[in-house]
Specification:
Chain A: It is a multi-pass membrane protein. Chain A: One of its GO terms (cellular component) is plasma membrane. Chain A: Keywords: Cell membrane, Membrane, Transmembrane, Transmembrane helix. Chain A: InterPro entries: ABC3_permease_C, MacB_PCD, Macrolide_Exporter_MacB. The complex is a heterodimer. Chain A is α+β, with helices and mostly antiparallel strands. Among the domains of chain A are: 163 residues, no CATH class; 198 residues, no CATH class. Chain A has 23 helices and 24 strands. In chain A, strands 1, 2, 3, 4, 5, 6, 7, 8, 9, 10 and 11 form an eleven-stranded mixed beta sheet that branches. By secondary structure, chain B is of the alpha/beta class. Chain B has one domain: P-loop containing nucleotide triphosphate hydrolases (Rossmann fold, 3-Layer(aba) Sandwich), CATH 3.40.50.300. Helices cover 34% and strands 25% of the residues of chain B. In chain B, the strands form two sheets. Chain B has a six-stranded mixed beta sheet. The chains are: A alpha+beta, B alpha/beta. At the A-B interface, helix 20, helix 21 and helix 23 of A face helix 2 and helix 3 of B.
Chain lengths: 798, 237
C-alpha cells in the first residue's frame, strides 16, 4: 500500500507541470468553494444565533411628507410603541452611539449602546461574568448600569475577575458594571454593518432623552426591536402599527398646518433581513462570482485530466493488453486523482481558514454576519465531499475517453491514439464554456472596477487635506449653557496660537451626519427636505468648497445668528430651475424667515451617486465642534490636544479628533478592498483561462499528433499547421464571443443597469481580444512541439 | 515484371543522393549509431527495395529520405539540391513537390473523405490554386488505384487494402519525383498486400521511381535494385 503510494507520488513528481497546476488551481477552487458555501449558508440559510429569531423584528417609523420619506422616530412615539403591549410579546428600545469613557486610561471614545433590559433577553445574551440588565434597571428606573463586552474586559481590564460592581464613567455619570458578555456573544448588526458595541448602558441615560417630550423632532438613531407573538406574521402588523402610530402622533400635532398631508407608515422587518440589508445583491454577486470561478477551474482541470489520460495512453494500453480490466484502469486513474485532489483539498481548507480571518478583518463593513464566520461542520463536510466528488468527477471524465476495446488492440497495431479519443464537439464545447465564463467574469469585473475607479477619482467638491475635526464633550454630560461659548472660544484661541495652525473655527465636520430640515419656499409654499448643518464663517474657506453665487457668512452673521442660509447647487435648482435662488426666502413654520445668501457647489461622500440638497445655517455660539486646518506637513497629536484642552478646562474631553482625510479614506476602504478583490478575481480568472486554453489546446494537439505529422509529411508547412490549428476552433470561438456579448449585455442590464454602454463595449472588446490573443499564443506555443522537432518524432509520440 | 529503363536512367544524375549519411540517437546514457557512413543513389524510374531486420535502421533511413528527420552528418541531395539543412518551410515544400510518402498504417485523416484526403497535398502546394483542377487531379489518382467509386466515403468505411490504395493515390497526386514506401503491407492480409504491390508495380511500369522499405524478403525481391541494411550499413543484396 505504502509502496504503491510512493510509486504514485514519484510518478506525479515527474509530471511537475500537471501536478502543480492541478494542486494550485484546485486548492484555490476548493478554498473558494468552501468559503463561498460556508458564507452563503451562514447568510442565507443559517438562522441567527438567537432563540425564535424569526419572530424578532425591527420596526421602522417612516414619515411620509410632501417632500418624501424620512425614516426616524419621535422620542415619545418610540416610547409609546415600546409601552404598547398589544403588538409584541416583548419590545426593546435601543440607541447606538459613541461616548468618551473618562474612567479609562486616555479617555477613549468607545462604541456604546443604550438599551432596555428586553434587548438582552430577546437575543438570550450570555455573560462571562455577572448578568445582563434586570427589570429593576429598565425604562424609567433611572439606575445607571453597564454591561461590557468581552473584548473591552480583555483590552482595558486585563480580564479582571473582580470587575463586577466596579464603575465606568461616561459624561460624568458612574455606571455600575453588572456583567461581562460572553466571548461567544454575537451582536445583531441592526444599526450598521460591522458594529461592535463595547459598552451597553441602561436606556434612561441615552443622549436623546432631552427629546422625550417633543413630538415635533425626530431622531434617526432611535431603534425599536420587538418580538412578535407566536403565529403572527411580522408583515401583518404593519397596518395596525401604522394606524396606531399615526393616531397617536396626529393627536399630539393637531392644529399645526405644517403637518397637514403627513402620514406615518410602520415597516416591520425580520432582523435577519435587516442584518442582510439592501446590499444583499452584493452577497449574491460574490457567491455567483465565486461559483463561476470554481466552474472555470473545474473545466480547466477537466482539460488537464483529459490531457493526462492521453499521455497515459501507452501505460494504459500495456496494462490493458496484459489483462487489466476497464475497472482496473479506472482505479489507476482514480488513485492518481485522489492523491492530487486530497492534497488540493487540504491546502484549500487551510486557505479557507485564513480567508475567513481576512474577510473578518477587512470586510465586516461590507458583508453582514462575518463575525459568525468560522470553520464549522459544514466546512469540514464540504471538504470531505470535495475530495470524493472532484476525484470521482475527474476520474470518470478521464476514463470516459478511453475506448477499452481499441486500447487492447492498440498494442497489436500501430494505430496510434486510437484507444483514447475526445470528440471534437466535446473539445470545442469545453473551450467555449471556458471562454464564455472568462469573458463574462472579465466583463463583470471590468464594470465593477470602472465603478470603483469612478469612486476613487470622484471629485468630492471639497478639500480634506490637513483638516481635522474636533468634537468636545463635557464631563457632566450636559454643557453648562453660559460657559460653553467661553470654553470653546478659549480653546479656539489656544489652537489658533499654535504655529502649526492655519485656521481654526467653531464648526461641524463636513462628514458629520446631518439632520433633515423640512422647510417651505415662502413664496410658492412648496415644501423641501434638505440635509441641514450649521457652519462657521470660514467653513467653506477651510474646506475649499466653491461658491457659485453669493457669499459666505460673515463673522457677524454667525455671532448674531442672522436669519440667512447658504444652499447647495442641487437645492438651488430645486428651488429655481435656472439655479438662481439668491434672495429667496425659506420658512420652516411660516413665521421664521431665512434668506438665501449664497449658493455653493455640491459636495459628495465617497460612493455617493446622487446629489443631495443641502442647506447651511450660521453655527450657534454653543457649538462644541471645531474645524482645524493645519499648515502643510504640520499636525497635532491627540495627547497634545488633550493637554491643551485640559489647560482650558479639565472638565472638557475630546470626544472625537479625526483627520477628515483619514475619515474619507476609511469611507473609501471597503471600495478599495472590493477593488483589490475584483482585480484578484480578474487575474485569477485570466490565469485560469490561460491554463485552461493551454491545457485544452495541448491535449487536443497531442491527440492530433499523428494527423499533424501526416500532414507535415505530405508537405504542410509550419504555417499551414498553425493556420489549421487556429481556424479549427475559430468558428466556435467567435460563436462563443457573440453568445457572451448577448449574455453579458443582459447580465449587465440586470445587475448593473447604470454601466455605460461605451465602457461596457470597451471592456467586452478588450476581454474578447485578450481571449483571442491568448488563444493565438497558446496555439503557437503548443504547435512548437510539432514544428520544432523532426516529423518522425511526432509519429512516435502521442 | 519489366524493368526497361535502367540503361536510360543510369546515365542521368540521380534524383536522390545520400553521401556518407550517419544518424546517431542520443539518449541519457547511451549513444546509438543507427546509420553509419551510408551512401545511396536513386535514379529516375528505379524501383529499389531496402530490407533488413527490425532495428536495422530502415525506418530511420526512410525518415531521412522523406525529410521527416535530419541526418547527424553527411549530405543529402534531391534533384541535385542539398536538402539536409533546409528550413522547416523549405523542406515542407520539397516534401510536397518531390516526395510521395506511403505509410505502413495508411495515416489517412479520419474526418476527411477519401477524395479530400487525396486532394490534401495539392492544397498545401502554392502552384495549385484552382480547386477544380485539384479535384480533377485527385479523381484521376483515385482512378489509377481503382477507387473512384469510393471517393465520397470516409477512410473508416474502407477495408485496410482500400485505405492503403487511397494512401498511394495521395502520394501520387502531386506527381512527386520519388515514392517512399514504408512497409505498405505491414497492416494488411496477404491478399490485400498483394493487391497493393500490384498497384506499385503498375506505377513503376508507368515510370514512377519507388523506394520500398520492407522486412519481408518476398516483397523486397520484387524490386530491381535490392539493398540490405544491417547494423546501420547499407549493402547491395
Amino acid at each position: 500500500m505504502f509502496g504503491s503510494l510512493l510509486q504514485l507520488a514519484k510518478r506525479l513528481l515527474v509530471k511537475k507541470y500537471f501536478s502543480f497546476t492541478v494542486i494550485v488551481t484546485m486548492s484555490l477552487a476548493i478554498s473558494a468553494f468552501l468559503t463561498a458555501t460556508t458564507l452563503a449558508n451562514l447568510l442565507l440559510l443559517d438562522p441567527l444565533p438567537y432563540p425564535d429569531s424569526e419572530r424578532i423584528v425591527k420596526v421602522e417609523h417612516i414619515f411620509d411628507s410632501p417632500t418624501g420619506e424620512t425614516n426616524a422616530y419621535t422620542y415619545p412615539g418610540l416610547v409609546d410603541l415600546y409601552n404598547n403591549k398589544q403588538f409584541f410579546e416583548q419590545a426593546s428600545m435601543a440607541l447606538f452611539t459613541r461616548d468618551v469613557v473618562t474612567s479609562l486610561v486616555n479617555k477613549p471614545t468607545i462604541e456604546t449602546a443604550y438599551i432596555t433590559p428586553e434587548f438582552f433577553s430577546m437575543i438570550a445574551a450570555q455573560t462571562k461574568l455577572g448578568r445582563t440588565f434586570s427589570d429593576n434597571e429598565g425604562f424609567q428606573k433611572n439606575v445607571p448600569a453597564a454591561v461590557i463586552s468581552y473584548d473591552l474586559w480583555q483590552t482595558y481590564y486585563g480580564q479582571n475577575p473582580d470587575i463586577i460592581n466596579k464603575t465606568i464613567t461616561i459624561s460624568n455619570r458612574q455606571f455600575q458594571i453588572v456583567g461581562v458578555l460572553d466571548r461567544s456573544f454575537v451582536e445583531p448588526e441592526i444599526n450598521q454593518r460591522g458594529q461592535d458595541t463595547k459598552i451597553w448602558l441602561t436606556w434612561d441615560f441615552n443622549p436623546s432623552v432631552h427629546l422625550a417630550e417633543t413630538w415635533y423632532n425626530i431622531d434617526e438613531k432611535l431603534i425599536l426591536l420587538g418580538k412578535v407573538h407566536k403565529g403572527i406574521k411580522p408583515d401583518s402588523l404593519n397596518e395596525s402599527i401604522s394606524q396606531h402610530l399615526y393616531r397617536t402622533w396626529k393627536s399630539q400635532v393637531e392644529g399645526i398646518a405644517f403637518f397637514n398631508n403627513w402620514s406615518i407608515n410602520a415597516k416591520t422587518s425580520k432582523i435577519k433581513d435587516v442584518i442582510l440589508g439592501s446590499n444583499i445583491h452584493l452577497v449574491y454577486l460574490f457567491i455567483v462570482g465565486t461559483y463561476g470561478l470554481i466552474f472555470i477551474a473545474c473545466v480547466n482541470i477537466s482539460n488537464l485530466f483529459l490531457m493526462r489520460t492521453v499521455e497515459m495512453y501507452k501505460p494504459l494500453a500495456i496494462r490493458a493488453a496484459l489483462g487489466a480490466s476497464k475497472t482496473d484502469l479506472f482505479k489507476e486513474i482514480f488513485n492518481e486523482s485522489a492523491v492530487l485532489i486530497t492534497l488540493s483539498t487540504v491546502l484549500g481548507f487551510v486557505l479557507s481558514y485564513f480567508t475567513f480571518g481576512l474577510l473578518q478583518q477587512h470586510l465586516t463593513d461590507v458583508l453582514p454576519r462575518l463575525k459568525e464566520l468560522s470553520v464549522n461542520g459544514l466546512t469540514i463536510g464540504l471538504a470531505i465531499v470535495s475530495v470524493f466528488a472532484f476525484t470521482l468527477l475527474f476520474s470518470k471524465l478521464s476514463i470516459s475517453i478511453v475506448n477499452y476495446k481499441s486500447l487492447i488492440s492498440a498494442m497489436q497495431t500501430s494505430g496510434k491514439g486510437a484507444g483514447i479519443k475526445v470528440s471534437s464537439t466535446a473539445q470545442k464545447g469545453l473551450m467555449s464554456v471556458q471562454v464564455f465564463c472568462a469573458i463574462m467574469l472579465i466583463v463583470f469585473c471590468t464594470s465593477v472596477l470602472q465603478k470603483l475607479y469612478e469612486i476613487s477619482k470622484q471629485d468630492l467638491g471639497f478639500n480634506s487635506k490637513n483638516i481635522y475635526s474636533i468634537e468636545l464633550s463635557h464631563s457632566e454630560g450636559e454643557w453648562p449653557e453660559e460657559a460653553t461659548f467661553s470654553i470653546v472660544n478659549q480653546l479656539e484661541q489656544a489652537l489658533n496660537n499654535l504655529p502649526s495652525t492655519e485656521y481654526v473655527q467653531q464648526s461641524a465636520s463636513p462628514l458629520d451626519p446631518r439632520d433633515i430640515f423640512v422647510i417651505k419656499d415662502a413664496h410658492t409654499e412648496s415644501q423641501y427636505a434638505p440635509e441641514f448643518s450649521t457652519v462657521s464663517s470660514e467653513y467653506f474657506n477651510i474646506i475649499a468648497q466653491q461658491f457659485i453665487a453669493g457669499k459666505a457668512f460673515s463673522y457677524e452673521d454667525v455671532f448674531n445668528r442672522n436669519p440667512l442660509v447658504i444652499i447647495n447647487e442641487t437645492f438651488a435648482k430645486e428651488l429655481s430651475s435656472d439655479g438662481n435662488a439668491i434672495g429667496k426666502q425659506l420658512t420652516p413654520d411660516g413665521e421664521r424667515m431665512f434668506t438665501i445668501s449664497g449658493i455653493v457647489a455640491d459636495m459628495k461622500f465617497p460612493g455617493q451617486v446622487d446629489d443631495i440638497s443641502r442647506m447651511y445655517r450660521p453655527a450657534p455660539q454653543s457649538k462644541t465642534q471645531l474645524l482645524v486646518k493645519f499648515k502643510p506637513d504640520q499636525a497635532l497629536s491627540k495627547s497634545d490636544l488633550v493637554s491643551i484642552t485640559n489647560s482650558v478646562s479639565p472638565e472638557v474631553n475630546i470626544f472625537t479628533y479625526d483627520s477628515i482625510e483619514a475619515k474619507l479614506n476609511e469611507m473609501k476602504a471597503p471600495f478599495n478592498i472590493i477593488e483589490l478583490s475584483t482585480i484578484f478575481l480578474m487575474l485569477l480568472c485570466t490565469f485560469l483561462a490561460v491554463i485552461g486554453l493551454y491545457g485544452l489546446q495541448d491535449y487536443s494537439s497531442r491527440l492530433s499528433s499523428s494527423k499533424i505529422a501526416t500532414k507535415m509529411a505530405i508537405g504542410a508547412s509550419p504555417t499551414h499547421i498553425i493556420t489549421e490549428l487556429l481556424t479549427y476552433n475559430l468558428k466556435a470561438l467567435i460563436v462563443t464571443i457573440i453568445v457572451a456579448l448577448v449574455s453579458s449585455i443582459m447580465a449587465t442590464r440586470f445587475i448593473m443597469p447604470d454601466t455605460s454602454m461605451s465602457l461596457f463595449l470597451l471592456s467586452f472588446i478588450t476581454s474578447s481580444i485578450a481571449v483571442l490573443l491568448i488563444y493565438v499564443l497558446v496555439v503557437i506555443i503548443t504547435s512548437r512541439r510539432f514544428v520544432n522537432r523532426p516529423i518522425a518524432d511526432s509519429f512516435n509520440h502521442v | 515484371m519489366e524493368h526497361n529503363n535502367d540503361n536510360i536512367t543510369m546515365n542521368k544524375a540521380p534524383i536522390i543522393q545520400l553521401k556518407n549519411i550517419s544518424k546517431v540517437f542520443d539518449s541519457e546514457e547511451v549513444e546509438s549509431h543507427v546509420l553509419t557512413g551510408l551512401d545511396l543513389s536513386i535514379h529516375q524510374g528505379e524501383y529499389i527495395s531496402i530490407s533488413g531486420p527490425s532495428g536495422s535502421g530502415k525506418s530511420t533511413l526512410l525518415s531521412i529520405l522523406g525529410l521527416l528527420d535530419t541526418p547527424t552528418s553527411g549530405d543529402y541531395y534531391i534533384d541535385g539540391v542539398k536538402v539536409d539543412s533546409l528550413s522547416m518551410h523549405d523542406s515542407a515544400k520539397v516534401r510536397n513537390e518531390k516526395i510521395g510518402f506511403i505509410f505502413q498504417s495508411f495515416n489517412l485523416i479520419d474526418e476527411l473523405s477519401v477524395l479530400e484526403n487525396v486532394m490534401l497535398p495539392l492544397k498545401y502546394n502554392a502552384n495549385w490554386k484552382d480547386k477544380n483542377a485539384i479535384r480533377t487531379q485527385a479523381e484521376e489518382c483515385l482512378k489509377k488505384v481503382g477507387l473512384e467509386h469510393r471517393m465520397n466515403h470516409k477512410p473508416n468505411q474502407l477495408s485496410g487494402g482500400q485505405q492503403q490504395r487511397v494512401g498511394i493515390a495521395r502520394a501520387l497526386v502531386g506527381s512527386p519525383s520519388v515514392l517512399l514506401v514504408d512497409e505498405p503491407t505491414g497492416n494488411l492480409d496477404s491478399k490485400s498486400g498483394d493487391l497493393v504491390l500490384d498497384v506499385l508495380n503498375q506505377l513503376h511500369a508507368e515510370g514512377a521511381t519507388i523506394c520500398l522499405v520492407t522486412h519481408d524478403p518476398r516483397y523486397a525481391d520484387l524490386a530491381h535494385i535490392k539493398y540490405k541494411l544491417s547494423d546501420g550499413i547499407l549493402e547491395t543484396a
